[in-house]
Design a protein that fits this description.
Elements: H1 3-13, H2 19-29, H3 36-56, E1 65-69, H4 76-83, E2 88-92, H5 100-109, H6 114-121, H7 125-140, H8 145-148, E3 153-156, E4 171-177, H9 185-198, E5 199-209, H10 232-236, H11 250-259, E6 263-267, H12 273-280, H13 293-297, E7 301-306
Parallel strand pairs: 1-2, 1-4, 2-3, 4-5
Antiparallel strand pairs: 5-7, 6-7
Helix pairs in contact: 3-5, 3-6, 5-7, 6-7
Length: about 300
């Protein structure tokens, strides 16, 4: 689909009654969510990467209290952390997006990832399998997330991750996955400040950010640097509430974390030859003139920052 068509449809749906429901149906049955199994599998892989970074930093998941920024339509990370022995997982979303049918499908799909979850965390495979079966059964029987997980997963929506109401120095890990690229800079600053407040000394925040043009996933005629050609005013015509993209570069997320008081321990951002070649093929808008060539070309970053 031409990216302009998708942008125009999403823009229009933001103004019509019931537009959010129509948008979900389009995504579920005609868009990226039509292959739910594949999307779920990608999320589980992302979770295992996060756990690997945490383990390398000496931050255990078992017994930890975690805060997730941006739950989405189904709580993959929260469920995997529950299987891994987390003490509490608070998951925040500005809007109540979670869908029961996807939550049930997720609980069932995770049966295929029992071995991966066990390997990633050191929990016995039979224990993970028992928890997965129990969770799926409870949810199918009408239990809430809190009931099905014994109070471990606490879904809060609508709720603001920049004002959690959690006690200061009460959390071990704050994290997000493919969320911060959709948050305005001021919102990220506020979330990082709140993370610093609620994290215990030595606690960490981990964020995986996909800072490339998301329209490139549905329009193969453009690449992930495409949106750097547009001025703020021109880009505002295509930005919308269903696919808001802040166009911040990886270096911005690193610097915002430092500004909030964190020490950066992991920064995976690298400019690849492919992205550099793509960058050389476009006319970058002057609004991005303060970035270096490498900073412009980077389209993803995993960052781990410690308090």
């Amino acid at each position: 689909m031409d990216w302009r068509v998708k942008g125009a449809i999403q823009k229009a749906l933001g103004y019509v009654p019931g537009g959010d429901r129509i948008h979900y149906m389009l995504q579920r049955y005609a868009g990226g969510m039509r292959d739910f199994g594949r999307e779920c599998d990608i999320k589980v892989d992302d979770w295992s990467i996060m756990v690997g970074h945490l383990r390398a930093a000496g931050v255990p998941v078992e017994g930890a209290t975690l805060v997730e920024i941006g739950t989405g339509w189904y709580p993959t990370f929260a469920f995997c952390l529950y299987f891994a022995g987390a003490a509490r997982v608070f998951t925040f979303d500005l809007n109540r997006l979670m869908k029961d049918d996807l939550v049930h499908a997720l609980a069932d799909r995770l049966a295929a990832h029992v071995a991966l979850i066990a390997r990633a965390t050191g929990v016995a495979e039979d224990e993970v399998k028992a928890e997965q079966l129990s969770l799926a059964t409870a949810l199918r029987g009408g239990a809430s997330l809190a009931q099905a997980t014994g109070g471990i997963v606490d879904y809060r929506a609508p709720a603001d991750a920049s004002a959690t109401s959690l006690l200061a120095s009460s959390v071990d890990i704050v994290f997000s996955n493919s969320v911060l690229e959709h948050v305005p800079r001021a919102g990220i600053e506020a979330c990082f400040a709140e993370a610093y407040r609620i994290l215990r000394p030595g606690g960490v925040m981990f964020h995986s950010v996909n800072c490339g043009d998301h329209y490139a996933y549905t329009d193969r005629s453009i690449d992930q640097l495409h949106y750097l050609q547009y001025s703020e005013d021109d880009w505002a015509k295509w930005n919308n509430e269903f696919l808001y993209q802040n166009r911040l570069r990886a270096i911005d997320f690193i610097e915002l974390a430092r500004h909030a008081g964190f020490t950066i321990e992991v920064d995976t951002s690298r400019a690849t030859p492919e992205r550099l070649a793509q960058l050389d093929g476009i006319q970058v808008d002057p609004a991005f003139a303060h970035y270096t060539r490498d900073q412009l070309a980077i389209t993803s970053v995993d960052l781990l920052a410690r308090k």
